[in-house]
Amino acid sequence: MATVLRRAARLEFSGVLSLFSASCRHGRPYALSHVAFNDRHLSTSSKVKVDLDNSNGIAVMKFDNPPVNSMSLDFLTEFSINLEKLELDKSCRGVILTSAQPRIFSAGLDIMDMYGTSPEHCGAFWKAVQDMWLKLYGYSKITIAAINGASPAGGCLMALCCDYRIMADDPRYSIGLNETQLGIVAPFWFKDTLLNTVGHRTTELSLQMGIMYHAHEALKIGLVDQLVPEGKVLSTAVETLGTWLAVPGHAREISKSMMRKPTVDKLLANKEADIKNFVSFITKDSIQKSLGMYLAALKKKKA
Ligand SMILES: CCCCC/C=C/C(=O)SCCNC(=O)CCNC(=O)[C@H](O)C(C)(C)COP(=O)(O)OP(=O)(O)OC[C@H]1O[C@@H](n2cnc3c(N)ncnc32)[C@H](O)[C@@H]1OP(=O)(O)O
Question: Which of 37-41, 112-116, 147-151, 289-293 has the lowest mean pLDDT?
């Protein structure tokens, strides 16, 4: 069993590394600097800052991709590599995800990776989204989302993948899978992640209407677990992780896997088909037109 798990971990890792080279092939410069996790250490990679505190084994991953922490191919690749490294690092016991950008946890997937790009790029991008989800939803260690700002679509998905969600109690911030509002459809594994958290009826309403929930509504439907003042989001996440660490790790990990494995296996069995579906859907003229209109509306809002 242990050998199988080790082999699976190695395969996943090589998957992420191949993703890394796919990102390089797209011609974007990508410098993965040396990341040491041996003592309290800040990674120097660019879009995701990692700080592992060896005194308690808690790593904080801060999204730092201005202006809105959109999840581009580069961001996703860097995120998955760092997450993988932390999983393999015995001194890390749990991971907190949060944002270094003011008012925004993450604006979700980078629309520019899906708008006006080639089918090949869309395919590589979608594989990176899948790999992020597979790694995070199936993560063996404890994960907590410290949601210190707006969290639409892919941002919400990332938070949903965590074991516990703490959100800033601020009426300006909202969270949800709003894909239908962009004229696109959340795939089955986005749907399953929400369904496993808030139940069938809420997921149905939420997905059809593309609802973005204000913090209080999100707490009410169980989309987030706790609201705290913005200044306390990270410290509460650290405290909460401490409580989770008090539970016998092996039993917790197996329980998590028991709850999530069927959902993870569903995508693993359909990865290639899901990429094909995505590429054929997103490159349709009508869908490109919807994305273009959504982007224009975002810009108009500013004017
Ligand atoms: C089968 C298909 C399935 C696909 C599944 C898709 C999942 C996704 O995640 S799609 C992305 C969904 N995301 C959104 O709908 C969020 C859109 N953004 C916003 O609502 C807001 O930007 C905000 C609340 C996150 C932040 O608001 P604000 O602080 O007012 O900032 P601006 O709106 O002015 O945005 C600044 C700048 O960033 C651009 N931008 C925003 N979001 C994205 C994004 N997701 N991808 C790419 N670019 C984004 C925005 O257009 C502005 O650009 P400039 O005008 O050039 O400065």
Answer: 37-41
Q: Whose CA is nearest to atom 20 of ligand 1?
A: 107
**Residue appearing with tokens 């594994």:** 189
Report residue 265 CA to chain centroid gap: 18
Phi and psi of 89, rounded to 5°?
-85, 115
How far apart are the C-alpha atoms of 87 and 79, rounded to whole Å? 12
Please report, for residues 89, 158, 230, 240, the alpha-carbon distance to residue 225 in angstroms, rounded to integers and kept in the order given. Answer: 28, 15, 15, 11
Quickly state the pLDDT bin for 25 (edges 50, 70, 90): very low
Mutate to test the pocket of ligand 1, among 47, 63, 65, 68 (most ligand atoms within 8 A of CB): 68
Q: Is 179 a known active-site residue? A: yes
The whole model's pTM is what?
0.89
Percent of the chain whose pLDDT exceeds 90: 83
> What class does CATH assign to 8-302?
alpha beta
Sheet with 174-176: strands ordered across: 151-152, 174-176, 213-214
Q: What is the largest CA-CA distance in the chain?
A: 58
Contact 178, 153 (CB under 8 A): yes
Would you list the domain boundaries of the chain? 8-302
pLDDT beyond 80 at 7: no
Query: Which are the contacts of 38, defined by CB distance < 8 A and separation ≥ 6?
Result: 54, 91
From residue 185, alpha-carbon distances to 105, 181, 287 in Å are 22, 9, 10
